[in-house]
Write the structure tokens for this entry.
Amino acid sequence: MLLFSSMSINVEVNRNPGENAMGVLRRFSRKVQGSGIIQRKRSLRASGRVQSHYKVKQRALTLIKRREAMAELIKLGKAPIKPERPGRKHS
């Protein structure tokens, strides 16, 4: 019997007679995937990371350059003007 517990989510697989270890492991993996435990843990890990000051600054500079380039294209009439989406605050 394999058991995996994460907070209140339990995944249990019992070995059937005549079933080899690979079959049990395959069924267990499927159940873990289906329960969404791995996706939840990965999302928490990725969202919990704090970007370094340098990375934050580089991203901000990239966005500023992209906005300036797009504004220039709109001014020249080479890019379509996108309507503002409701509920968004622009600074």
Remarks:
- Residues 51-82 form one domain.
- The longest helix spans residues 53-76.
- Residues 66 and 72 are 10 Å apart (CA to CA).
